[in-house]
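BUG: 3D viewer hangs when loading the predicted structure for this chain

Environment: internal workstation, default settings.
Expected: structure renders.
Actual: progress bar stalls at 90%.

Input used:
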Amino acid sequence: MANAKSSRRTALVLHVEPKSRGARALRDAEARLAEAVGLTAAIHLDVAWAGIAPLARAVPATLLGSGKVAEIAAIAKELEPEIVMVNAALTPVQQRNLEKAWGTKVLDRTALILEIFGERARTREGALQVELAHLNYQRSRLVRSWTHLERQRGGFGFLGGPGESQIESDRRLISERIVRIKKELEQVKRTRGLGRQARKKVPYPVIALVGYTNAGKSTLFNRLTDAKVLAKDLLFATLDPTMRGLKLPGGTRVILSDTVGFIADLPTELVAAFRATLEEVLEADVIAHVRDAAHEESAAQKADVLAILAELGVPEDRPILEVLNKTDLLEPGARRGLEAQSGKGGVYAVSALTGAGIPALLAGFEAAVTRENIAATLKLDAEDGQALAFAYRHAQVLDRRDRAGKINLSLRISPQDRARFENRFAQKIVFQEGIAAQF
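Structure tokens produced before the viewer hung:
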């Protein structure tokens, strides 16, 4: 029996719920506990026990009251977990005291998310961002956690002085590594900036998929682009941004970007460290907010995502489409109700798994990216194939009529391309001034 137990990596999960959060606290606490269990499972730990600890007042030494600390100690003694995950922010002192009381390793919410990110990052940029966040977190924990170490002897005789303490040495090494990582990330940002400039010269609009973690962004991305991005029922399955070209029904070409999932109470270290990744969202022409329509906390998750977008500085006038995903998991009546309203007010009901609602979503994408395009008519000679190809390549052709050796085209042209058409076609093109070409 002991061998079977030792072969499994188990964890206890404790969600700390402040009593000050009000009437919805219990339901919120259960949802947050479920999320914490999902986060713990994401690093391949079996959750042997999970519970909620109501908190009236934080105790400086342990966060929790002595009764709750003793209760968890008894459970830990019986189940012998490898880790106790406390779904809250712990100070270094609290973490150390709880580890001593429970006789096992303790992770708080920030440390757990860092563990997940460290495991999932695949690109050089992702690995650097995770390491930067981890070092910032680790540096904040050096103040108290290393004070038991003796000071090192330094120098030679009276010339050397007392030297530096272990904590000072560790802090210096961490700071030096942080400086190096920041320099590397600046280079990554410059490289990505050049990539964005190159795309703008094409130019293809960018649509960024954002949403709460596990909302189904990667499954939708794969459905739309035939990509092979990792898509699992797993929190933070995607960390590194992925981009693919996509041709919309009306012929408009766009770039679709899949991004890291958001989460409530995202550690500040990660918001800062992943800002370079999320710059794709800031640069996007359109944002598609993917929501898990079947999740009981879908509305709360929406609020968390919108709050993070605001924190990132996304302009208020940026078009945001709402994509209600996973409609296949809804009851038939609820699904039909969403589908009946799909497409109204920028809200689209889809199932990335089955493909339901995808055509309407693609049409919505096209309407959003061409909202500022200008309507125009262009008359060409039928034998001018080069000019015709140019028009099809750089504009959206709404209508074509061939008559008496002439080709009449109704076009939708982006404002950035207006000068190119004016210079090339001069008297052959007529713009409908002040009229945006509506999809």
